[in-house]
Design a protein that fits this description.
This protein is an all-alpha fold and about 300 residues long. It contains 16 helices and no strands. It has a single domain, classed as Farnesyl Diphosphate Synthase (Orthogonal Bundle). About 5% of the residues have low confidence.
C-alpha cells in the first residue's frame, strides 16, 4: 500500500510556512524548547550568585541548539522506523520533503559544535560538557545503541534530560549542590513513565516497527504498573528539594503535579487502554510544567 502521507506531502506546494513546519518537525523543536526551559529553571532555583541575563539567554539557546541537533540525528537515523509508524510517517525524511543525504550529518554536527563551543566560551566548561552529554545520550546512547535492542532503552536514555538540569546548575555553580542533583534524578525518573504511557497508547505502532518498548515486550497491563511505580518514585523524589532549601510553593507544585500524574497512572493500571495511555502521557507533561512553574515562582518569592 502506498504511503499516503508521502504522496500528500509531495503534491503540496512547498512554501515558507511549510518549510518552517518541516524544520520544526525535523529538529524536534518542542522537545528542544522543553530542555532549554528545564535548564533555565534549574539555573534560577540553584543557590549561588546572580547570573547575568545574557548568560541565561546563552544557556537556553545553546541547550536548544544541541537538543535540536540530537533530535535531527534521531530522525536521520530512524527513517526506516518512522516510515512504519503512523505517529511518525509524516516526518520530512519519510515524506521526501527533505532528501535523506549525508549533508544533514554535516549540519547536525555543526549545530552541536556551535552549541557546545559557545557554552564553553561564554558560560563554563562544565555547562558545555553537560550540554554535550545530553545530546550524546539522546543521539547515540538512546537512538543508536539502545532503542532497537532493549526494553530498558528509555530508562538509560532518559539521562539525556538530566544533563539539561545539570547544565543549568553548572552556570551558577560548576560544583553542583544537592538541589540540582535531585532535580536531575527527577528528570531521569520522569522520562520512562512519560514515554511508556505513550508506548501503551501507540502499542501497535511500536510493535509494527519492531521497537522493543516495554509495553511491546511485557504487555500494556504490566507496563502500566511500571508507569505507576516510576510515577510514585518520581513524586517522592520531586518533594526532596524542599528539604534542601526550596520553599513551600515549590512543595505545593511538586505535590499537585505529582498527585495528578499518580492519579492518571492509577487509572491506567485499572484500564491500560489507548485512551488512558494518552491521558497519562499528557499528565506527565502537566506534572513537569507545574513543577517548573512552581519552582520559578518559589524562587522569585524567596529572592
Amino acid at each position: 500500500m502506498p504511503n499516503c502521507s508521502r504522496e500528500v506531502a509531495l503534491a503540496q506546494p512547498f512554501d515558507g510556512s511549510m518549510l518552517l513546519k518541516q524544520l520544526s518537525n525535523l529538529f524536534k523543536f518542542r522537545i528542544g524548547v522543553v530542555m532549554a526551559l528545564v535548564s533555565v529553571v534549574t539555573l534560577v532555583v540553584t543557590p549561588g550568585q546572580a547570573v547575568p541575563a545574557w548568560q541565561v539567554l546563552v544557556l537556553g539557546l545553546t541547550v536548544l541548539l544541541a537538543a535540536s541537533s540530537a533530535g535531527a540525528f534521531n530522525q536521520y537515523y530512524e527513517v526506516d522506523i518512522d516510515a512504519r509508524m503512523r505517529r511518525t510517517d509524516n516526518r520530512p525524511f519519510v515524506t521526501g520533503a527533505f532528501a535523506h543525504n549525508r549533508w544533514w550529518l554535516l549540519l547536525i554536527g555543526a549545530m552541536l559544535v556551535a552549541g557546545v563551543g559557545t557554552a564553553g566560551w561564554l558560560l563554563n566548561g562544565m555547562a558545555a560538557l553537560y550540554i554535550f552529554l545530553g545530546a550524546f545520550f539522546y543521539a547515540i546512547v538512546y537512538t543508536v545503541w539502545l532503542k532497537r535492542r532493549t526494553s530498558t532503552n528509555i530508562v538509560i536514555g532518559g539521562a539525556a534530560g538530566s544533563f539539561a538540569v545539570l547544565a543549568g546548575a553548572a552556570v551558577v555553580d560548576p560544583g553542583l549542590g544537592p538541589v540540582p542533583v535531585i532535580l536531575a534524578i527527577v528528570l531521569f525518573l520522569w522520562t520512562p513513565p512519560h514515554f511508556w504511557s505513550l508506548a501503551i497508547a501507540r502499542h501497535e505502532d511500536y510493535a509494527a516497527a519492531g521497537v522493543p518498548m516495554l509495553p511491546v515486550q511485557v504487555g500494556n497491563a504490566t507496563a502500566a504498573k511500571a508507569v505507576l511505580g516510576n510515577t510514585l518514585l518520581l513524586t517522592g523524589m520531586s518533594v526532596l528539594p524542599f528539604f534542601f532549601g526550596l520553599g513551600w510553593l515549590y512543595l505545593a507544585g511538586a505535590l499537585l503535579g505529582g498527585g495528578y500524574f499518580t492519579w492518571r497512572s492509577l487509572l491506567l493500571v485499572r484500564d491500560a487502554s489507548r485512551a488512558n495511555g494518552m491521558r497519562a502521557f499528557f499528565a506527565s507533561l502537566v506534572q513537569l510544567i507545574v513543577l517548573l512553574v512552581f519552582a520559578v515562582l518559589d524562587a522569585q518569592l524567596r529572592g
